[in-house]
Design brief:
This protein is of the alpha+beta class. Helix content is 40%, strand content 27%. It has helices at 3-25, 36-45, 53-61, 68-75, and strands spanning 48-51, 77-78, 91-99, 102-110, 114-123. It has a five-stranded mixed β-sheet.
Length: 126
């Protein structure tokens, strides 16, 4: 079989394979969250969120909408050096994200079914 024929068969099979993948995976919300940062953020995002009075005072004092937490959980960074991933019964994570000109850091207590925003503060430039 000539090389051109083999290349045509390969191309045809590749085309049909891609079409089948698009057909089966097109309507589903599939994601590839393999990094530790992405897995933690996804785990927190899917849970019910509660705010402590301390965190609510911060948001009210600084005139920040609490919906910014959803944006930070979408594109933020988990600081594993500050986080306490061995805490029992709930792990503590520090997640930071850009909010305009400032970097907002939120402390989250991640339990089995609830994620509690314990504290929030604006990170000072060092």
């Amino acid at each position: 079989m000539k090389f051109v024929h083999r290349l045509a068969y390969y191309g045809l099979g590749l085309f049909f394979g891609i079409v089948i993948l698009i057909f089966f995976l097109g309507g589903k919300k599939t994601s590839c969250d393999y990094s530790p940062n992405a897995r933690v953020l996804k785990n927190i995002k899917i849970k019910e969120r509660h705010f402590t009075s301390n965190s609510m005072n911060f948001f009210e004092t600084n005139n920040i909408d609490t919906s910014i937490v959803s944006l930070i959980l979408k594109d933020g960074d988990v600081d594993f050096n500050k986080s306490n991933t061995e805490a029992k019964p709930c792990k503590i994570y520090f997640v930071s994200g850009e909010t305009g000109r400032n970097t907002l850091v939120i402390e989250i207590e991640n339990c089995d079914s609830i994620a509690t925003i314990k504290k929030a503060y604006i990170k000072k430039d060092e």
